[in-house]
Design brief:
By secondary structure, the protein is α+β, with helices and mostly antiparallel strands. The protein has 2 domains: about 45 residues, no CATH class; about 130 residues, Immunoglobulin-like, CATH 2.60.40. Strands 2, 3, 4, 5, 8 and 10 form a 6-stranded antiparallel β-sheet that branches. It has a 4-stranded mixed β-sheet with strand order 1-12-11-7, with no helix packed on it. Strand 2 and strand 3 form a beta hairpin.
Length: about 180
């Protein structure tokens, strides 16, 4: 009869020890940034939402944002020194439409990645040349609900005509869309 007084605490201690040492918490602990769980959770938090679309078509990025990018076309800069590097100057017309009920701030708009089939280590560089009317984002980066804004964006790509070009755009930093074209 005295056995239950010894066995019961041992069983309870075993259950608690097993739960503590095997199951443990399934969320990273405070200030944990090195465990596999913390790293995978951080990566999923930072992952941008991938969208699909093509040049010249309206692309719904979610949250009421519609992006339309014209196919990159060759342009003749008026100031070749503004290009900064040798390559093919390309220009695109960007149109952003805000269908959300609240204003949209496009100050974070960027081409976050560019690559070519011929050499994935090369990338394009943004070009701003006021003489050709290419100044980047408009001065007022707020787009009211139900409104749209258009502007020109230019790149210099260190490649040749006919190479496949891949450009990844982000409007607010929370989403991205990769568009594919052929360098003109």
């Amino acid at each position: 009869m005295q056995r239950w007084k010894i066995i019961t605490p041992l069983v309870l201690a075993s259950v608690v020890a097993i739960a503590f040492f095997t199951a443990g918490p399934r969320v990273p602990m405070d200030n944990d940034n090195t465990s596999a769980l913390a790293i995978s959770e951080k990566a999923s938090e930072n992952a941008l939402e991938q969208k699909e679309g093509g040049f010249g078509a309206d692309i719904d990025l979610g949250d009421g944002i519609i992006l339309n990018v014209s196919d990159p076309a060759v342009f003749e800069p008026k100031d070749y020194e503004a290009l900064g590097i040798e390559g093919r100057p390309l220009v695109m017309d960007i149109k952003l439409t805000n269908t959300a009920a609240k204003p949209l701030d496009i100050a974070s708009f960027a081409i976050i990645q560019s690559s070519f089939d011929s050499d994935e280590t090369q990338s394009c560089f943004d070009v701003f040349e006021p003489e050709s009317g290419i100044v980047g984002l408009p001065e007022n980066t707020m787009v009211d609900s139900g409104k749209e804004v258009s502007f020109k964006w230019a790149l210099v790509c260190p490649t040749t005509a006919g190479d496949k070009l891949h450009l990844t755009f982000s409007v607010t930093g929370n989403e991205e869309v990769t568009l594919d074209s052929t360098v003109k």
